[in-house]
Design a protein that fits this description.
Largest sheet of chain A: 2 strands, antiparallel
CATH topology of the largest domain in chain A: MetI-like fold
Strand content of chain B: under 5%
Radius of gyration of chain A: 24 Å
Largest interface: A-B, 89 and 87 residues
Keywords (chain A): Cell membrane, Membrane, Transmembrane, Transmembrane helix, Transport
Radius of gyration of chain B: 24 Å
Membrane topology (chain A): Multi-pass membrane protein
Number of helices of chain A: 12
Structural class of chain B: mainly alpha
CATH topology of the domain at 72-254 in chain B: MetI-like fold
Number of strands of chain A: 2
Helix content of chain B: over 70%
Number of helices of chain B: 11
Order of helices and strands of chain B: HHHHHHHHHHH
Domain ABC transmembrane type-1 (chain A): 68-275
CATH superfamily of the largest domain in chain A: MetI-like
Family (chain A): Belongs to the binding-protein-dependent transport system permease family. CysTW subfamily.
Structural class of chain A: mainly alpha
Strand content of chain A: under 5%
CATH class of the largest domain in chain A: Mainly Alpha
Shape of chain A: globular
Distance between the termini of chain B: 34 Å
GO cellular component, one term (chain A): plasma membrane
Oligomer: heterodimer
Chain lengths: 290, 286
Amino acid sequence: MRSQRDIRRLSLFLLLAPFALWIVLLVALPQLGMLFLSLREKIAPRVYEYGFANYVSFAGEPIYWNTLLRTATMSLLVTALALVIGFPVAYYIAKIAGRRSRGALFLLILIPLWVSDLIRAFGWILLLRETGVVSSLLQWSGLVSGGIEFLYTDATVVVGLVYTVILFMIVPLVSTLDGMDEAMIEAGYNLGGNGFTVLRRIIIPYAMPGIVSGCIVTFMLTAGSYLTPILLGGKNSSWFTAQIYDQFITRYNWEAGATFGVLLLAFTSVVVWIGLKLSGQSLSTTVARS
Amino acid sequence: MSARKSPSLMLIGYRLYIAAFFVFLAAPLVAAGTFAFNDSLFPSLPWQGFTLDWFFSATEPKLGMFHDRRLLSGLYYSFVIATCVSALSVFVGTCNAFLFVRHYFPGKNALYVVMILPLVIPGVILGIALLVLASTIANSLEQATGIELSFLRPGIVLVVLGQFSFIVTIASLVIVARLRKFDMAMEEAALNLGASRARVLATVTLPYLRPAMIAAGIVGFLVSFENFNTTLFLVGSEAPLTVIMYDRMVKVGSTPVLNAVSLVLMLGSGVLALVSILVQRDRSPS
């Protein structure tokens, strides 16, 4: 029996090793390194001072924190839109579509999931630019006389982002709604509820884990997205990740870039944490299930 | 929902909404794919006729994707990176699955949450954080000893590690889900029949996990192939396909060769995704 327990011990440690290496070397240490770098200030070549100077200069520069605020509000807007647009679609797939079309619709939803952000943004560019499909069709139909540029506006960025992330909203919603017993809805109607009450008191509470999970992933993907705002919003889209890229690659100011990185991470973590607390969920009941 | 009051009209409206949604979903993909066949130097209307030049033509200005050396080298590097990431992720993901499903240790639930965390860290942050750490180590090592570790500089190794750091979470979740459904009686039966532990693992447990491992591998491969955000900061001279395509896209004069590449990628990932779904569906009744 003793050797039996030793074997279990040994296998536990062998299995713990790759997990620990991964988490410590590729996740924890890099984040700490970034935090450390953000607290460092270069005052002369190879002379550094440690403190909050980078954060102070961030706070003193309205362009920087305006970009963060802008990214934040637009991400929240995109998340809300994705939920409002995606919920009826998820409900249809899970509850209204027939058994056979359900699988097909779900597959159709998944197909764009496997297409790179880059190709999706490229497709939108081809549709929306001044010489693009929509503009050409409008001219051809005689509705407008000259070409219309749809790109490089905030509305386009929002549409593009909703498009990019909405699948991550729909998939967890479908899997939660799928488990809901139809009898619950029937009961709601039988007890005298109208459509709206049934939606608010029965369907939405039931779908809450899916909603939270979808919102978290959607928000995080939006706030951290880079391609869609740059390609659809142009160079002046003032997206926070673009600022990070700018500091790191263009200006080679790693200390400032790391500061921005820490701020973005802190910000998204706080929003995710608030979302989990407000809904009483945890990461393993939401994100892990989707 | 409130389809109940006047079912027909509400339902028709609802169906129209769903149809409109799918048009919205398909439109950019169709646009990206269709212009690959346009016999024009620009991926835009008017339609100039059908051509396969953007795939197979060997001469400028209509250099097809299969003759474009830079695109082909990008495809090659993407393939190498995705293969490494996928193999590593499946291996570590399987270890994680056994760790979290079969073992009990203090702090297990907290560590399970830690395992999921990389999925909620923005990809850009994973990229720059790894870049900062690797460069710091490389710089201090060079200053102290004069040894230059080139794999810590932006390049293929860092790209693989950066992508692996969050793809392994996806792989772990897929494999954990399958291992949880495993009936322990099957292992016990094999042990009672005299099989060694290693033999049980090789002939009973791992074959049971195989569909999930294949699916996790395919998903990991696809996610890696498409990744841009994390890769952008870690890329060296061996640029993968997404980075090369992005560089061409931000330049104004992009030709339909990008559409050809997009179409090939869409078809490739569509087939792979279908395989991963079929593999998972074909499971023994349990």
